[in-house]
Amino acid sequence: TDPLPINFQVRESGTIVPYFDMPFAVTSDSSPIKEIWLGPKNSNPFGNIKFFLGNSGYGNIDLKQADGAYR
Description:
By secondary structure, this protein is α+β, with helices and mostly antiparallel strands.
């Protein structure tokens, strides 16, 4: 198999961040993502995130809200 191509993103701070798109096999029976924890400062409503995930083929993922700050 060929290696995944590396892309780059420039953040607002000017930091260059390398990344690659990693495809996941998603079926109606299984998903590589089981749950997503949202940080305490997350401002996105759960409904918007669920809608985005559903449109991306990840309809059955448990969303949870973290109570405290990460360390």
